[in-house]
Give the backbone structure.
Amino acid sequence: MTETIRKLPSDQDASGRTLGREEIDCVARAIESGVLTSTKGAFTKKLEQEFAKLLGVRHAFACSSGTAAIHCAVAAIDPEPGDEIITTPITDMGALAPILYQGAIPVFADVDPRTYNVTRETIEARLSARTRAIIVTHLFGNPCEMDEIMALAAERQLPVIEDCAQSYLATHHGRQVGTFGAAGCFSLQQGKHITTGEGGLVVSNDAAVARRLFLFINKAWGYGDKQPDHYFLALNYRMSELQGAVAAAQLGKLAGVVATRVRLAERMTRRLQGVPGIECPAVLPGNGHTYWKYCLRVDGARVPGGSPALGAALKEFGIASAPRYIQKPAFECQVFRDQVTFGKSRFPFTLARQEAVDYDRKRFPGSYEALERVLVLPWNERYTEEDVDHLADSIARAVGRL
């Protein structure tokens, strides 16, 4: 039977992005100024000021990517080689490589299989005397249980880094993510809520952390100091003025982008109620989800073949989806499995406790269940109500067939 094919807007091209005349005008002004470095230009500074104001934080810095933002945050807490940083196994490698580059050991905590996020309980199970920090990832725009996690961190005197790459304007009890920990990290990559193609932002309310963030972005050169020097080992993670110009225009559209995504997600959830074997996103009480993606939890006992089968069935309706999101937990990737780092040294894994690098799947029941059941649907602010209804109807029909 031939199904109705509806071409959905895509965040990989103009159909699903808010890029337009505002961005073009800002880029033109940057080019006409002849100043394309953010150390002397106006657009990146404006972006930083406006983003800090939007989040209600004291300090915001633009950088070259979301990975750079995480790297800056890890460097700001300055771990000793062999220190442990607790994080999630359901994340992009860009959030993990910076830990290794700073000589620390990523220690993976399990996740709640319904929210896909780490919890106080799963973090606490991985704490050790060598734990130096905690990284929490607000996956898909769904906030972690930050009050509980921050209470644990305070008890243990551990800094928390928030990976907010997918969670612009998401809230926990009315407070924006990225403002709870020592640093909050955001991405401006092509598919995020707002984009410059590649780019990042990192924020903090802590003056000492902010100083380290600023320096690490700038090769540890003390711009503005009376006697500047390169104070420690650091990289050039600066954003260009061209990116800053695009981001400054994009930032003004963020509130509308989020509002549209949330409104349409609520419609999607209503439309999917009662579809057998399908659970809509689980949002903790007091949290505000901002839907980088819309994720289904598929019960393989009721939907034969589970999320892979449903994903394949949706292709007949012209709908691309991502069963499992990532195919395996991060610790199963070769860089961790074979400890492939700097030459043949295996550093910093050579400094690790055996338990810290024990990736026995029995430690991670929630992670494996989460990946087994999740089906990630495309989502962006250019969807219409008709697009959402097409998605929901297609899912219901595909489930019915399976």
Summary: The chain has two domains: 14-253, 256-326+367-401.
